[in-house]
Amino acid sequence: MKLISTILSVLLILSLTGCGNSTQSSEQSTITPAETVSPVTAEASASPIPSTLPSMPEDQQKQLILDRYEEWSYKEPWESPWFYTFTDLDHNGRLEVTAATVQGTGIYTHAGYWEVTPDYSDIRPCEITVDEEGASYPDIIVDSAPCCFDPSTGLYYYIFEDMVRGGFSEYYTSINAICLHDGKVDLIPLAARYECYDNSEKPTAIIYYDGDGKESTKQFFDSAVQNFSAGKETSTISLNWTMVENPTPKEEPSEWDGEVGPEVVITKNPRSETVPAGGKTWFIAHADNAVSLTWRCVDKDGFSVSLEDALAQHPGLTLEVLEDDTIAVGNIPLSFDGWGIQARFDGIGDGNFDVTEPAIITVQ
Question: Is the pTM here over 0.85, yes or no?
Answer without folding.
Answer: no
